[in-house]
Amino acid sequence: MAALLAASVPAALRAQVSISAQVDRSQVALNGQITLTVDVSGPTSSLPAPQIPSLPNFSVYSSGRNQSISIVNGRISSSIDYTYVLEPRFVGKGVIPPITLSYNGRTVKTSPIDIDVLRSAPAASAPPQTAPPPSTAQTQEVPGAPDFFVTAQLDKKKVYVDEQATLTVKFYNSAALAGNPQYTPPDLSGFMEEDLPPIRRETAQFRGRMYDVSVIKTAIFPEHEGRLVIGPASVQCPVAGQGMDPFSPNFFNQVFNMNFGAARTKTVSTNALKLTALPLPAAGQPRNFSGAVGHFSISDSLDKNRTQVGGALNLTVSVQGQGNLRAMGDLQMPALPDFRTYETVSSLNLDKKNDVVEGSKVYKTVLIPRVSGDLSIPPIAFAYFDPTRGAYETLRTKSLSVSVKPGPANQAVGFASSGAAAAPGLTEISQDIRYLDTNPGNSPFLSLLRRLGRGGPQNAIPFIFLAACLLWRGAERRRLADPRRLRARQAYKAALALIAQASREAGRDPKKSADLMSEALCGYLADKISEPPAGLTWRRAQELLRLRYPNLSADALARIKNAWEELDLRRFAPAARSGPERAAAPDLAELLKTVERELDA
Amino acid sequence: MKPAEKIFGIFGAALALAAGLPLCAMAFTPPPAFAQAQKKYDAGDYAGAAAAFSQLSAQEPENSADLYNLGDSLFKEGRLGPAIAAYQKAFDLDPRDSNIRYNLNFALKKAGETLVPPGVPPVLFDVFYWFSLPELSGLQWTLCWLALILCGFWILLPGARDKLKPLAACSLALWIFWGGWFLVRKSLEPERLGVIISPSAEIRSGPGDGFNVIFTAPEGRRVEILAPQGDWLEIGVLKEGVQGWIKSDAVEGV
């Protein structure tokens, strides 16, 4: 039953973060330092920071962090080591209370750590500085060479936004204090700050007097442009009321020889400092610039160069260098259509050697090849601003290649399985345009259709055709409606046809020629007067001609009569009338032409 | 042979010829210039391929395949605007070609548009744009010819009217249908279509640099060219329905 319950607990709840803390020593002299390392680990890349409790017996300075991330079988595990430098304030038993960490609504904590703070060890002799530079010093009470004073100094007056400037606060003391001094850091609004431990001890000479000097350095990074103000730093010093040797070189030890009841507090402060933060130039800013300012290098690697479709590859891209790595954004990964890509996780490692914030930001992602073959990962670009040169730089990783073999058949279907057996299907790898049309021929029919569609005068043809049909049809109707008139109009044309035929026959058969001409004349007259040609006599023809065509001249009638008689004579008595028949045809034609003209008039 | 039979014979021969012409096209052999352009494309010389396909297209402006291939080359070269212009020209000639539709839609998506307007059923769009405008015009003119000639013969040949009547009526109905389709398409489509070929074109409130920039349009966005004035064009952006002025060299006419 218990096993069943345990199995039903979600993995996210079971996979909790853990925290542990350790110190490099459990006994320390009052003027010594302890290194506290807090290790936080858990199944996520975004582990929360530990909550350091109030430590009234120690001054606490952050010394750096070191993060490592591993991805195994798609599971992320991360570990961060936070390093702190602790400086004891009082002699005696000190305790570092439990350090807590809250994650997913649950809190884990470390065990308390006991520290024994002993009286100060003898100070190591250090060569005195001959020229202390209290340019911003504010001396207290004693003119000339005060018992103690504090200075603040910047290494640069102008920096770019997110460029490091180093603030150095020095506490000079030559008096025997009644206790450890309390340092109050300056107001650093508008800056991102990083402690630069440890506190260094040195000696210096000022106006002929030897001082113990405590040096506290802080890296500051302007968050925005403009003239920014760094507030005054102050040190509260418990001063013995009497009997203290002002010339003792070790003010930390002297306090424990004094009467605490008689002590009073004196405060020394620095002046406020001003720093000009220059904006990053807009001109020439690369598209993939993500806010990195400093000096960097970039590298990339794959955990293996051979795998199969569906196998996992770990791509690691590391950006190393000096600068405010916390302000750096995510890398822009190139499109990798041949791979299924997972979320990129990043880890931050900070180091503060030589008072310069440096370190690395490591980006890790899992790639699953979707296709087989020799695949490549193109160079990854990283842009940063170089404050030394005042210009942007773009770095590129080298191109990586991996040989991918075909995987099992079900690997190409999908990598996320819901448990149920899925039917095999297509997996879209990427989208692209379709290939060229390799048959660029154009259909002549479609070309003709398109040409026809362009319009043009040729498209008037069907309309003209239809109009002509309609006109013809109208004319035909009108023609058919009056057959007499039609016959009369066609008479001349029919007669001329017969005359032409008679002319051709004249040489071979004069009688037939005469018959044809007679038929032409008789038919012409019959058509004009709407009488049947058979049986038509000249008398009847003359009568009707006069009736229907009163304009016809007597001369014309006479000529017609002569022609009629002449043709009858040729037809029925050819021997009696021999002559040139060929000449008769044009005469008859001429006669009919004259008659036609008079009839039309 | 009776006149009516003669007429039917002539139409039958014409139809057989029309049906046979596409078969002639199927036997078409690509010219050597095409092979050279294809070789450049395959070798990744997209600029060279684009130049070669552009030449081919200039020689045969109504060949949709050359325009499609030109679009492919320009797209691969990274010139989205000119690629969309070429695809659009190919689509205007041969809207049934599935490859042209796919690539035009693919490219338009990169310019923030789609071939099928939002809210329009794709099937309806496919049917409505099954024929190109010149083809619709050609069909309606063909049917116009057919209907009017049949009507003419119907008038001329009273003896064949019984046979001609259903043919003439059918062709008249088809003419009205295709003619109506053509007119609707013509009224819906922009008079002059253009494509923005500048990477990020600024559209101003008037024809000059002194006028305010009222909006910008991405490369590849299709616009209607409304009126030219000097070096400037008044345009209307089809998708958003806004108007403005743009420099004429930032737009390629389709």
Could you walk me through the main structural features you see in this protein, from its secondary elements to its overall organization?
The complex is a heterodimer of chains A (601) and B (254). Helices cover 23% and strands 35% of the residues of chain A. Chain A is of the alpha+beta class. Chain A folds into 4 domains: 16-118, Immunoglobulin-like (Sandwich), CATH 2.60.40; 138-278, Immunoglobulin-like (Sandwich), CATH 2.60.40; 290-411, Immunoglobulin-like, CATH 2.60.40; 482-600, Four Helix Bundle (Hemerythrin (Met), subunit A) (Up-down Bundle), CATH 1.20.120. In chain A, strands 22, 24, 25, 26, 27, 29 and 30 form a 7-stranded mixed sheet that branches. In chain A, strands 10, 11, 13, 15, 16 and 17 form a 6-stranded antiparallel sheet that branches. The radius of gyration of chain A is 61 Å and the shape is rod-shaped. Residues 1-14, 122-142, 243-249, 254-261 and 412-422 of chain A have low confidence and may be disordered. With 254 residues, chain B is α+β, with helices and mostly antiparallel strands. Chain B has 3 domains: 29-114, Serine Threonine Protein Phosphatase 5, Tetratricopeptide repeat, CATH 1.25.40; 131-188; 193-253, SH3 Domains (SH3 type barrels, Roll). Chain B is built from 9 helices and 7 strands, in the order H-H-H-H-H-H-H-H-H-E-E-E-E-E-E-E. Chain B has helices at 3-26, 32-42, 46-59, 64-77, 80-93, 98-110, 122-128, 133-156, 161-188; strands spanning 193-196, 200-204, 213-218, 222-229, 232-237, 242-247, 251-253. Chain B has a 5-stranded antiparallel sheet. In chain B, a hairpin with an 8-residue loop joins strand 2 and strand 3. The longest helix of chain B is centred in the C-terminal third of the chain and has 28 residues, at 161-188. Mean pLDDT of chain B is 88; it is low at 19-27. The chains are: A alpha+beta (601), B alpha+beta (254). Chain A binds chain B through residues 431-455, 459, 461-463, 465-466, 468-470, 472-473, and chain B through 18, 21-22, 24-26, 28-30, 34, 38, 41, 56, 60, 62-66, 68-69, 72, 75-76, 93-94, 97, 99, 102-103, 106-107, 132-142, 144-145, 147-149, 151-153, 155-156.
